[in-house]
Each structure stands twice: as C-alpha cells, then as structure tokens.
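Hey,

Quick one before I head out. I ran the complex with zinc ion overnight. Inputs first:
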Amino acid sequence: MRLFECGTLVPGCDWHTRANDDAEIVRRVVEHMRSAHGETVIRENMVDNIKARIRNEATAA
Ligand SMILES: [Zn+2]
C-alpha cells in the first residue's frame, strides 16, 4: 500500500490518503489540493512534488 501525507507538502495539514498505485494517489491529492488548499491550477512541478512524497506504508506481516 502506498501512502501520501499532505503535511509533507502543506505544513500543518493532517489529511492523508492510501491507494495501491501512485496514479490514484496523485488523482486524490490533486482533488484535495483544489478543495482544501485552493490550488485551482495544478502545475507540473506540483505533481512531481506529490510523487516524490508518496511512500510505501509498512504492512503488518
Ligand atoms: Zn492538505
């Protein structure tokens, strides 16, 4: 499972999302950026910033 925590990009925000693939995470994060942070224009470097912060979530064995 892949995990993105918005606080790594927007300090103080505790929103986070999990998905099986990065594309789904990016889609949800863009949606969150629009609705919660007023980012109406998602720049290319924003997507790169999101991807750079997606990490593997440790799964219990
Ligand atoms: Zn946020």
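The CA atoms of residues 29 and 50 lie 8 Å apart.

Talk tomorrow,
K.
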